[in-house]
Every structure is written in structure tokens, then in C-alpha cells.
Amino acid sequence: MKTTLRTIILFFVTAATAFAAHAVAFLSDIRGEVAIDGNPRPMLLSEIGKGQKISIGRDSRASVMYIASGKEYVLKDPGEYVVKDTEIAGAVMPPVSRSTEWRANPKVLSQVARTSAASVRMRSIAQPKADPAKASYPYDGSVATLQPVFRWKADEPKAAAEFTLLVVGQEKPVHMAKAAGGHYRIPAKLKPETEYVWTATSSGSEVGAGKFRTLSNEALARIETRRPSDRAEFSDRLLFTLLLHEMGAVQEARESWARLSQERADLPELSALAR
């Protein structure tokens, strides 16, 4: 128990130290024994400043992406590396790099990294209570599609629910339907940059509800252009999830964190962000 608490405190302290530096890059992946300026096991998404040193142990690796350029360095040879303005220098051979089109939003990056650090720390104190509203989708924030699949809690999968969708401020429903199985896909696209409210009722009781906003056509186009495949690099899928956060599609981002967490059980930061 003491070891677990000590590890969690190191997570939090290391993240805070990284944020205190003038960041030029951040950790986009981490496996095994990795340290920054001697602090072991930095958190995923920790920001890294110019002049900081990254140590890689045997059979370990770390990926570092520059915030301004999107260039990513993969550090996999054991040894110490130095973070410079626009590149990383290795003790023996230069690390492998690749250029990407990602440009991380520093504000979102910091916000998400701090949230994950705090969430991991709080999980050692008490497990958060489940939020019944999260069984509904979408229940808050923005959605990254104009044709969402609405979801709600269905105790009886075959029981039909009355689905109603309205534009906020209007009394006449935009769409009404009966749906079973706890989900329903709108047959036509919604309007961009519009706020909606919806409910699903079964046997006179509300089983799902939410209020959300659709994004602009420009934002939706950006999301679709950047959407990675399931076989894309881990860091590409990580950065796409950060893009969802940036666009306000927080619920979809949370579901993306959950998928990444299932893939990388060694990173408690991901499961913390999925909650």
C-alpha cells in the first residue's frame, strides 16, 4: 500500500515539475523504465522543457512529440537523451523520428494532463461513484457528428422507448420515434452549430436524456480529416482524443480514452481520464 501511494505521489510531483518548465514537447507514449531529470515514471502527456534529460532503461521506450512542429522522436536505446529546441540528442546515435501533422493545443494538453494526474491521485483515496447520466449519449457538451446514435439505459432490451428530439428554445419536436434496444440513430443529419435536447421514456418513466450542441461544418471536417484508423500509431490516436477534447466533444473523448486504456493497461492515466 505504501509503495502504491508513493508511486502515485511521484506521478503527481513529476507532472507538476514538467509543467513548471517552459514546455517545448510532451510524452506521447511511455513503456518500462523511463525517467525525466532523474524522476522515475513520468506520466503520459507530461510536458518537457528545453534542457531536460530523459533516461531510458533496458527494454523500455518513450515517444516525445514537439508541440510546435508535431515531430515525434522514439527513444528506445538505453541511455540518456537531451531535449533541445527542435530536436532530441542522444548519447550515441540520434533517435528515430517521424514527422506528423499534429499540433497539440498547449492549453488542452496541460488541462488533460493535470486532470489525469489528479484523477490517478484521487483514485488512491476513494473510487468515484458511477454517474447514472453517463449511461445516456449524448448527455452534455458537443458531438463530433451530425448523425449521432443516441443511447440510454435499457433494462428490457426489447421494450420500446419513446424518443423525442427538440431544438433548444423550440416547442415543436424536430424528430419523434419509437426505438428498442437502448439506442437510436437519427435518419437524417442535424443542423451544425445548433443546440438540442432529447429524452427517451419507457412505460411513463424517463430512461435517457441529454442536452448537446453540434459542431460547425469546419470543425466536423477537421475531425474527419484527422480521424485515425484503428491500426494507426498509439500517439496518433492519443492526439485525436485530445482533438476531441479541444472541440468540446468530451464524452466522445472519454470513450476514446477508455479504448486506449483497454489497449494499454500499464498506463493508469488513461483509465483515470476515461472516468
Verbal overview:
Helix 1 (2-20) runs antiparallel to helix 2 (106-123). The strands form four sheets. Strands 4-1-6-7-10 form a five-stranded antiparallel beta sheet. It has a five-stranded antiparallel beta sheet with strand order 3-2-5-8-9, with no helix packed on it. A five-stranded mixed beta sheet has the order 11-17-16-13-14, covered by helices on one side. The protein is built from six helices and 17 strands. Among the domains are: 2-123, no CATH class; 145-214, Immunoglobulins (Immunoglobulin-like, Sandwich). It is an alpha+beta fold and 275 residues long.
How would you characterize the largest beta sheet? 5 strands, antiparallel
Q: Would you list the SSEs in sequence order as H and E?
A: HEEEEEEEEEEHEEEEEEEHHHH
Category by helix and strand content: alpha+beta
Number of strands: 17
* Span between termini: 23 Å
Topology diagram in text:
Elements (H helix, E strand, L loop, with lengths): L1 H19 L2 E9 L2 E3 L2 E2 L6 E3 L3 E4 L4 E6 L5 E4 L3 E5 L4 E3 L5 E3 L7 H18 L18 E2 L5 E3 L9 E7 L7 E5 L3 E3 L9 E8 L2 E10 L2 H10 L7 H13 L3 H14 L4 H6 L2
Parallel strand pairs: 11-17
Antiparallel strand pairs: 1-4, 1-6, 2-3, 2-5, 5-8, 6-7, 7-10, 8-9, 12-15, 13-14, 13-16, 16-17
Helix pairs in contact: 1-2, 4-5
